[in-house]
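Fold these two proteins, one after the other.
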Amino acid sequence: MSRRKAGPSANKESTKSASRHVERRIDIRTVAASAKVSVATVSRVINNIANVDPALSKRVWEAISKLGYIPNNQARALVSGRSRLLGVIISDITNPFFPELIQGFEEEAVAAGYETLIGSTGYDLRRMEACVQRMLERKVDGVAVMTFGIEEPLLERFALKKIPMVFIDVAPEKKGFSAIHIDYDHGIHEAVQHLAVLGHRSIGFIAGPTGLHSAQAREQAFRSAVTSIGLDLPDEYVYVGDYTMEGGSKGAEHLLKLPGPPTAIVCSNDMTAIGAMHAVSRLGMKIPGDVSLIGFDDIGIARYVLPPLTTVRMSGREIATNAVRTLIASLKEEDSRKAAYEAVTTRLVVRQSTSIPKGSLAGLSKRRPARSKK
């Protein structure tokens, strides 16, 4: 009986099978043998348990790198009782401010040995509830609520599981809950003072949603800044928006159609300001010639709109970094409130959407050429 020779496809298949067989054999015991340590030592190193000799830890990580071993995160979670997973809940993934925040959060978390689980609420209570449920199912170790608002009944579920949480601005008075404070006053005072120095005496404001603490804080900072330099602020000069471009467009149109419209508008965020820009153009006006405009956040596209937007810089990356570090401090059973970092500062970034008010003496002297002496 003749035997058939194995062809190239059979050889390839056997090679793949052998490769899979070798891959299966690279487990924690293989790592232990390569590093010449016990399986228990490898387990402690992988799970970041502190009482491991640094020299042994180095040998284990070198063996892991050499063998290409990928630790089983689920098994690690069973051993350590921790998922090594941090949740981050944001308001609106379509707002360019939040991708910067998420990127900073993930980079800081990965550097500390954690993965991230992201949820976007879209300012919708049902989506918020779904985010909470998903994070509880995945057994997150901690949660950063970066929504600029608090839904306490839903978040109480994390408290019942004793999961540490960090918030923006204000946190509920519970153990393991802490807040990252934002210094809104500094940047917004700089913005109002900048407009006053240019000669503006009537300044409007497009606020954020009334139910959000961040919106209230920004509006209060604006009112305080206007009062501090002795300017009047008529009620009709404050329009309640919703942090969106549509809200900014409606707000600017409302303010600029008043009998005595403001010569400058400060917006509660950059998305609002970009919407306001469209309304100004639609009304046949120009920025900054007819009205000066200032945003808040300094999102990436703020410098690329026309004209480039003067805005108050608030670093999403800095907020995220502080949030991760505060959560990790809480997980180490430190006092999370003591571990909270310094307030995130804000500052004015001057670009080309602000100038002297139209028709002011400063504007006239700037445009009118000096007469030559005879």
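Now the second one:
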Amino acid sequence: MSDQDNDRAQVSVHTRLQARIENREAVVGVIGLGYVGLPLAVELARSGYSVVGFDISEGVVQGINRGFSHVQDVSADVLGAFTSSGLIEATTDLKRLAECDAITICVPTPLNKTKDPDLSYVVSASQAVLHGLRPGQMVILESTTYPGTTREVMLPVLEESGLVVGEDFFLCFSPERVDPGNPVWQTRNTPKVLGGVTPACKEMGLELYSRVFDTMVPVGSAEAAELTKVYENTFRMINIALANELAQACDKLGVDVWEVIEAAATKPFGFMKFTPGPGLGGHCIPLDPHYLQWKMRTLAFKTRMIELASEINGEMPAFVVRKVADCLNEVAKSVKGSRVLVLGVAYKKDIDDLRESPAMDVIRLLQEKGAVVDYHDPFCPVIKDDGHTPVHNLPMRSVPLTDAALAEADVVVVVTDHSEVDYARVARTARLVVDTRGVMREPQQHVVGLSRRHTPVAAPRLVTDAAAD
């Protein structure tokens, strides 16, 4: 084929995919139908695209095809409307990737025991795409990972097809920014970062995603997009570590940490509010900084702030358990044999996600000290033995939050501050409370917080000249 023929072929590849995207004729595949992939599939369908979702779980696939949502942020009514209309279809058959004009990869990227990235799911997905890769397809990785993954790991796999990136097919990275349970910022209205392996890749990625997301944030490379995601959550991890260290300092000083934070938050510039707690949890903040840390180790660069912040945050469950032990000692009880009721085990309020939840470590440490531990969580009815959860005596089931359960516990520990719990009732009924979230707003002798003087107050009232008069 002559150079002129090659140019015409490349123009044809570009224009054909662009036209299918513009006309809503493009079929989009979504690999991985979890908390990232399923909401993305819904937004693609809402934008008029036919979606084929891929998942290794037959149960998940069957449920989606029946209109059942296993993801809290996707309602069954919305999903059911799209599956019944044929805009969303789920399958375990990866051969059907060849049908798709664009493919997004939303698979897990866990860390192994040494906190090194495990990219096996990304590699497997890339190999599945390779088997059906054809000219005119676009592939977008959404899974959080270290800078260089798209170009250094995915691209060599896809190039085994003999196709040329940016000419025959397009490859981008666009990090997921899902905040489960957030009623304001959801998949569509959260600004969407996107970078391509080549400029043509970026432009084609923008062609699709600008029709799905309200705001696009294009960056100059896939590496810049990858680093943006890990930087965002490294920023949060480090600032949470600072808040957790402040809580421990306040405990030594006899100062109320919540009062200090609320006062500092009145500054209208130069301050961003972060709060302490029992430790880090979730799918992002405890993990993402370690992708960057691992990458920089390969370049002989030490990320000291990540290492220190990880250490501080990792110590918080033990700090909470020491608080529990100290409080029991003050009423002449030992941890061993005491009945402890943990309120909330999800990693954050008002969701059902247990991943990396600090509650698991709090429960385990209490169990190892001989405490008899129960928990109540309206979102998490059972803690299952999945081979990774450190809690002993699994499965554990949520107990009803009755007055009797509160009164019988030697100590109640607030770990996750779910909105539907009546904390005034908890404070009124329980003998002793350790509140790690600052939800007990009235100072009470039997309520103890992360810092020694636990008298949480409302945000300070700003005294203006008019108010002073």
